[in-house]
Amino acid sequence: MSFREKTAWISLVSTAGIYAFYFWSVLHAAPSNPDGYVDGLLGAIVALVVVQMVLVVAVSAMTPRKEMTPRDEREELIDLKATRVAYAGLASSVAFACFFGAFDPPIIFGTNSLLFLLVAAEILRSGCQIIQYRRGG
Amino acid sequence: MGTIRNDIRRLRFEHGEMTQQQLAERIGVTRQTVNAIEQGKYSPSLEAAFRIAVVFGLPLEDVFHYSRD
Question: In this structure, what DSSP letter does residue B42 have?
Fold first, then answer.
């Protein structure tokens, strides 16, 4: 497995895991504390940055030096294809959410609906990268 | 759409059993990309294809072959 594929797995697993916990806590806390999601969101962002940094450093330390090369043309293409798929998913899901009023007040649901779509797009992007790395490009 | 085949695997062995990693380092890509090119899963850019041909000291058409399906 290449270094880029390992980092794509780190992004996928950490983003899905941390935001799954965040959205679960928001859904359970919303009725009693509608403004309490901001602290949770900041905590999720900090946790995501720390977890990803630690895992990427660990993977870098275990990867042979000769494999730590700059991104090549195939990896750039994989990144571009995955970003295109994620953008299409994000754009269509935002349009869908606007149509069905997912951003209506109260603000806790509007903000978190938008955040959920962004997180879903990022997970979709990492997933597409992994699939293409597995296929060979 | 046509198919692009290549003789990179054979050429590597004819050039001192060059490894995928050694070829990758000489053309500036990852070993996984060389493997994907060899297996026909990824078609390299024209520049990368020329670099591969230069490594083997051959014209491009002796390394890559295009056929219409």
Answer: S
